[in-house]
């Protein structure tokens, strides 16, 4: 949740570059500024990254599903649901 406001003075050239980049990415200037802040001062600490890596490495019981298999599972579920009678309620 964004709760802090920050005012920064920039040059007209910097603003033009920000506007151009935001349009190119389909983003906002604020989003670009937040991304730049995170890239310079870090959004996640090294300790948090290490803890995440260790948690992922410890996920032995998680089954990997190849993308093609996942697509087949999703399609199968869509077909199964399409065959079920519609559950509509009357008002």
Helix content: 55-70%
Task: Give the helix tally.
Answer: 4
Q: Could you say how many structural domains there are in total? A: 1
% residues in beta strands? under 5%
Q: What is the strand tally?
A: 0
Short summary:
62% of the residues lie in helices and 0% in strands. With 91 residues, it is mainly alpha-helical.
Could you explain the architecture of this structure?
The chain is an all-alpha fold and 91 residues long. It has one domain. The chain contains four helices and no strands. The protein has helices spanning 12-25, 29-41, 46-57, 67-83. The longest helix has 17 residues, at 67-83. The protein is extended and about 60 Å long.
Pick out its properties.
91 residues; mainly alpha; 4 helices; 0% strand
Topology readout:
Layout (H helix, E strand, L loop, with lengths): L11 H14 L3 H13 L4 H12 L9 H17 L8
């Amino acid at each position: 949740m964004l709760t802090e406001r920050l005012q920064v003075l920039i040059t007209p050239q910097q603003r033009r570059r920000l506007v151009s980049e935001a349009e190119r990415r389909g983003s906002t200037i604020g989003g670009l500024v937040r991304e730049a802040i995170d890239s310079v001062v870090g959004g996640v600490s090294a300790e948090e990254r290490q803890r995440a890596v260790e948690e992922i490495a410890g996920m032995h019981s998680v089954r990997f599903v190849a993308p093609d298999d996942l697509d087949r599972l999703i399609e199968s579920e869509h077909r199964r649901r399409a065959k079920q009678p519609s559950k509509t309620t009357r008002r």
